[in-house]
Structures are given as structure tokens and as C-alpha cells.
Amino acid sequence: MNPFDAWEKQQRKKADLKYGSKNKKQQSDDYQYVFEIEDKIVDFFRESVFDGDNFDEFDSELPDKSAELLQAVSEYPVLGTVGETGSGKTIQIPQYLYEAGYTKQGKTGCTQPRRVAAMSVAARVSQEMGVKLGHEVGYSFRFEDCTSDKTVLKYMTDGMLLREIVIEPSLESYSVLIVDEAHERTLSTDILFGLLKDLINYRSYLKLLISSATLDAEKFSDYFGSAPIFKIPGRRYPVELFYAKAPEADYIEAAIVTVLKIHVNEPIGDILVFLTGQDEIETAKEILKQRTRGLGTKIAELIICPIYGNLPTELQAKIFEPTPEGARKVVLVTNIAETSLTIDGIKYVIDPGFAKVKSYNPKTGIESLLVNPISKASANQRTARSGRTGPGKCFRLYTLHNYHKGMDDNTVPEIQRTNLANIVLILKCLGIDDLVNFGLIDLPPEEALLKALELLYALGALNKAVGRQMAEFPIDPMLSKTIVASDKYKCSYEIITIASVGNSILYRPKDKQIHADNARLNFHLGDVKDHIALLRWCRENYIQIRSMKRARDIRDQLEGLLARVEIEITSNLNDLDAIKKAIASGFFPHSAKLQKNGSYWTVKHPQRAHIHPSSGLGQVLPRWVIYHELVLTTKEYMRQVTDLKPKWLVEIAPHYYQLKDVEEPASKKMPRAAGRAKE
């Protein structure tokens, strides 16, 4: 028995013992009363059936096609591949390239839009090849590198490959590059297309595969000069599609009711529920726990498995564990499971039809992460998740009319709705100055480009020496400028500590909010400035939790990058003004002053703003602050706030501020809470 089989057997045994649901059968006729106690019942009607493919198993078919695939790869420099999510293209194709000898000429790199996907796929491939993860097969993304000199199959985020191009523009160490999940149209993927299109002409022996789960591959084919498209056979089974008869006002409640209805009335099979984020997932999890607990042993075991970015890795792994016999698993996920994650055993999908979409308004400088309707393409991706291992059912919590009339065909590409400052900096460092004629698949808004150039000019990043230093750090340009400026103020040690921690260590679980809030108060005790509080907390608390380990790893890498850009490690903890000046050197465009009503008004590009409730400055209200970002949720909130003296703005950025920008009438009355005003 190999180690993986032994591990799997042990995991099954643990699951059986833990849940105690073996031999328990569902008897739906006896449990119809469950829904009589609910306030509502979700009515569906069966609209259609998604036809399946004529293939029983992918692995039995693709080897017959692998020879054709490898022949196409050898003949064409660029090849588009189209295959359903779960068809095995991400896992199998790199292995076929490995077996065909392509890795003898250089590494095979495969990009993923998300970190979780890069990790999970690399782990699966290393297991199938019988090698240790990090040796022949590895993964890499920002601030985490699980590769070695032996690595020949490398899975990474698309942003990571973009960083590698900055260091090695010709990518000589690669023989094949696979841009996977290209249909997601992330910002990094679109920029990679522009760079790789030129690189293919320069390196004739480099092979490029564009992999997509949708027919958008035709658009990519046209972009790369009518590159051929290879259709990968799938193994999708028929899926019955149900729509809500009427719009659902509370889609979380509707999803919970539908989960319970499926659990009681439908044959065995796991459930996948799409929600918009951590808060919704935790809410649904608690309600499901409460309602199933009340029914006790009257129904079969329902195992609730959430997955989101901040969830500890060991809990994320639970979604991949086999479901014990007689039990049912319900997986609560965000849109990451549309394409990037494949979970075996899913027979039922519940789709409320919403997702959180990040958008950037260049006029106001506000980033918003708001719940929006998904596109038809996303809806169809979600539906297909239920037909991988057998016939399935998809319950859409929206009407057929809403699907046809209220949803766009495709999601708006990220390049058309995001802050472009970091990408423009990278392209400038690669010598690409004509951004408009760079040759992107879809052009970004002109206003967003101008805003990015304006910010980079203000930060001094268009100076080649400074810009090159900033581009070495895989972080936001304003934060990278803060690190570069720390050399002047002799506080690089403190600044990279602040940069590595960010706001990630502060966790507020839904069932322990009071304790978390009390801990947050203690966190700010003694010095309520967010950045300084982070610094002192890190120095005085040695807590070995996942986020702190990650922060430590990030800090180590930032320290290594300081050496690359020839910045000495210096400490100046006793001079807090110097630390705040370094921060202001990067974030001076994000300054705001207090108004009489207790809100703030940004100095440049005037916009009303408020200190986020999680900030230690929320009750103090300094007269002048700088902030990391302005985010629109229920209000326009400033995140990561520090007070400063207004004269510093003129001192640090005389090209950006004049004295009249920071002068105030002496008689101006401020709110009573403004007890820490700086002059």
C-alpha cells in the first residue's frame, strides 16, 4: 500500500468515527415535517437539462487524444485548448508534456488565477507522479515558494509569472507555458498575453498553451494570429436545471431551506452552495448547524464544510476528504469553485446568482467590493459542477426571466475595473512606454491609465532608478515607495514589519465577536495609531498562528529584497515621527482632514470619508490622517489610518502639496473627540 492510500484509509476511518453516520439511511417520507416549521418554502420549476458528454471517464479517453495533443504542441508555437472544468486538462496536460520530454529543455509553467488552485493542483500532480511536493513538482505565488532546483513542473499564480518576467524578461528557464483558466480574464492574465505575444516571436522554441473552460478560446485564438484550438473531451453528465418561480428577497435563507430540502428528499450526493464571501458563509454555516442540531438523529448526518481565503489550511482541506457512508456533505464556497477548484462527489449545486466584484473608480480613487449579479457564463460554470461524477441537479435561486434579461453574457474583464498603478509600473520597468498601443485584448479605461500615471509620477516612480527599486517589491506601489523611503528615515526594520503584517492578523469569528472586539481594544491600548500598534503588537507577542507565520515569511522575503535594492536594515523605533514620515512618503496622496461633523474630506480629489470602525483612531478623530485605501462598503471607509502633522505633506511632497492645501483657520472648531490633533 502506497503512502497516499494509507493516508486516505486513515482519513476515511477518522471520518467514520467522527461522524458516526455509517449505515444511516435517509427516509424522506418520514421527514417532510422539517419544512413545515420553516417560514418559507422555495418553489422551483424544472426548466431544462444540460446535456452531458458521451464519455464515461476522462482518464480513459484523453490518452487516445494525448498523441494528437502532443503533435499539435510540436507543430504550433501557440495552441488554444478548450475543455470543461474538471476535464483534467490542468492536471493531465503538464504530465503528458513531462512524459514527452519537454521538461528536459526547460521547465513547464502553468498559471492559475488563484493561490488555492495552484497549491491544490500541484499537490495532486505530485501525488499522481509519486514525487515529493516541492521537488519535481512545485508551486509558487506571492511570498510563498514551494519549488527547488529539481522542479520541472511549476504551478503558479498568473501574477507570479508576471513578476518572473520582470526579473527574467526572456523566460529562458521555461520551454512550455500554460496560461490556465484564461476565461477568467484576470488583470495579470491579460497583461501576460500582451508580453507573451511578443516573446513567442523572440523565442521560437517556446511553446504557449492557452487553456479555457469556455468558447472564449476563439477570442484568444484570434488575438494570437488564428492559433489552432484543441478540444479536450470532457466527462460531464446531464444536469437537471431548476429555476425559482419567483424572485427570492433573502437568498441566504433560500439557500439554507434548499439545502435542507435536498438533504431530506433527494438521493445521496454532496451539495455545493455558492455564496459571496466569508460573512455569508459563516452565517449560513451557523444557521445550518442550529437547524440540523435541533433535529438530532432524525435525519442523516450533514457535514458542513466552508471554504474561503482566511480559513486555516487544514480546514480548507476538509472539503476534499471523502464523505462518510450514509452522510452528506454540504460545501459552502465563493466563486473560486466555479473553475479553480474541483470537488469530487458533488451532485447538487445551489446558485443564488451573486458574487462579490471588486471595482475601482478612478475619479474618486475608491475601491468597492460589492455584491453584484453574476454573468450567464458564471452561472453555466456553476451548473456544470454538479455533473462531473454522475447526473446532477442545479437549483438557481433566481427566475428564468432574470437569467435572460438581468445577467450579462460575460464578466467584465478585471483590466477594465481595477487600479492599474502596479501593472503600469511593471510595464514601465520592462521598457513599455506606449501603454495604449501595447496590444491588449481589451483596452482599459483611459481615465484609469491616466490616474495610474499620475500616481506613479507623484511617487517619483517614473524615475527609472526609483521605479526599478519599487518594482522589485511585489506589493502596491505606495507601500513599495514607503519601503524605499524608509532608507532615508533609518527605519527599514520597522517599515518591513508593518508591511508584512498589514491587517491580516486581526480575525473576528462570527461566534466570538465580543471576545474579538475586546482583544482589538487591547491591541490598540497605549497607542491607537494603526501602524504603530501593529509594530508593537508584533514585537511584544510571539503567537504561532497561521497568519503570523505567513507574516514572518513575508517579512523575511521583504528583508531579502531590501538587499537586492541595496537598502540597509536600520531600526529607529524610538522615533515614531520618522516611521510616520516614511509611511507618509508613500501614502501622501491619501491624506484627509477632519470636518466639523466628524467625517473627513480627502485633500486631493475631494471626497467624503470615514475612519473604519476597526481602527484605533475611530474614537480619537485626529485632525489630519493618511490612509492605505478608501473602500466603499456601507460608507466610504479609510482603512489602515495614521495621524500626521500637515506640514509633513509639504515637506515630503512639495510637488504635490502647497502650504494653502494644509493651512486651516485657527478658529475652526473641531468635534469634541478630536483630542489628538497635530498642528
Automatic annotation (TrEMBL):
<dbReference type="GO" id="GO:0003724">
    <property type="term" value="F:RNA helicase activity"/>
</dbReference>
<dbReference type="Pfam" id="PF21010">
    <property type="entry name" value="HA2_C"/>
</dbReference>
<dbReference type="InterPro" id="IPR027417">
    <property type="entry name" value="P-loop_NTPase"/>
</dbReference>
<keyword id="KW-0507">mRNA processing</keyword>
<keyword id="KW-0378">Hydrolase</keyword>
<dbReference type="InterPro" id="IPR014001">
    <property type="entry name" value="Helicase_ATP-bd"/>
</dbReference>
<dbReference type="InterPro" id="IPR011709">
    <property type="entry name" value="DEAD-box_helicase_OB_fold"/>
</dbReference>
<dbReference type="GO" id="GO:0016787">
    <property type="term" value="F:hydrolase activity"/>
</dbReference>
<dbReference type="InterPro" id="IPR048333">
    <property type="entry name" value="HA2_WH"/>
</dbReference>
<dbReference type="GO" id="GO:0006397">
    <property type="term" value="P:mRNA processing"/>
</dbReference>
<dbReference type="InterPro" id="IPR001650">
    <property type="entry name" value="Helicase_C-like"/>
</dbReference>
<feature type="domain" description="Helicase ATP-binding">
    <location>
        <begin position="70"/>
        <end position="233"/>
    </location>
</feature>
<dbReference type="Pfam" id="PF07717">
    <property type="entry name" value="OB_NTP_bind"/>
</dbReference>
<keyword id="KW-0508">mRNA splicing</keyword>
<dbReference type="GO" id="GO:0005524">
    <property type="term" value="F:ATP binding"/>
</dbReference>
<dbReference type="InterPro" id="IPR002464">
    <property type="entry name" value="DNA/RNA_helicase_DEAH_CS"/>
</dbReference>
<dbReference type="GO" id="GO:0008380">
    <property type="term" value="P:RNA splicing"/>
</dbReference>
<keyword id="KW-0347">Helicase</keyword>
<dbReference type="Pfam" id="PF04408">
    <property type="entry name" value="WHD_HA2"/>
</dbReference>
<dbReference type="GO" id="GO:0071013">
    <property type="term" value="C:catalytic step 2 spliceosome"/>
</dbReference>
<protein>
    <recommendedName>
        <fullName>RNA helicase</fullName>
        <ecNumber>3.6.4.13</ecNumber>
    </recommendedName>
</protein>
<dbReference type="GO" id="GO:0003723">
    <property type="term" value="F:RNA binding"/>
</dbReference>
<keyword id="KW-0067">ATP-binding</keyword>
<dbReference type="InterPro" id="IPR007502">
    <property type="entry name" value="Helicase-assoc_dom"/>
</dbReference>
<dbReference type="Pfam" id="PF00271">
    <property type="entry name" value="Helicase_C"/>
</dbReference>
<keyword id="KW-0547">Nucleotide-binding</keyword>
<keyword id="KW-0747">Spliceosome</keyword>
<feature type="domain" description="Helicase C-terminal">
    <location>
        <begin position="255"/>
        <end position="431"/>
    </location>
</feature>
